[in-house]
Amino acid sequence: MNPLLKILIALILTMLGVSAANAVSCAKGAYRAGCAGANGAVVTQKPFVAPRPVVVAPRRPVVVTPAPRHCNWVNGVRVCR
Q1: Are 67 and 80 in contact (CB under 8 A)?
Q2: What's the CA gap between 39 and 21, in Å, rounded?
Q3: What is the pLDDT of residues 33-74, one digit of tens each?
Q4: So what's the pLDDT on residue 41?
Q5: Within 10 A of 33 (CB to CB), how many other CB atoms are there?
Q6: In angstroms, rounded to a whole number, what is the distance separating the alpha carbons of residues 8 and 2?
Q7: Where along the chain do its domains lie?
Q8: Taking the complete model, does pTM exceed 0.70, yes or no?
Q9: 27: number of Cβ within 10 Å
Q10: What is the pLDDT at residue 42?
């Protein structure tokens, strides 16, 4: 068979297999949702929902005592840590 005829048959079969993209495809992502069709695309954002604060009451009163200060004399200067 002639190679030119093979190419022509493959080209005709390829053209018959291609269909028009008339369908609308929609997707829902982590941050946005949108649809794309033949006339364009539409993108929408999800509304922001603020998280509720978590408040936990202590079971017993919390008492904080100051840590003991260690002071030394270094080169004639008092250093407390």
Answers
A1: no
A2: 11
A3: 677 776 777 777 766 677 888 888 878 887 877 777 788 888
A4: 73
A5: 14
A6: 10
A7: 21-46
A8: no
A9: 9
A10: 73
Exposed (0-12), middle (13-18) or buried (19+): which is 48, by Cβ within 10 Å?
Answer: exposed
Do β-strands 32-37 and 25-28 pair in parallel, antiparallel, or remain unpaired? antiparallel
At residue 52, φ and ψ (nearest 5 deg) are: -75, 140
Per-residue CA distances from 23 to 34, 39, 42, 43, 49 (Å): 14, 11, 14, 17, 33
| Cβ atoms 33, 26 nearer than 8 A | yes
What Å distances lie between residue 69 and 29, 35, 62, 65, 73, CA to CA?
A: 56, 66, 21, 12, 13
Assign 3-state DSSP to the chain and report helix, strand, coil percentages, each to 5.
20, 30, 50
Three-state secondary structure call for residue 11: helix
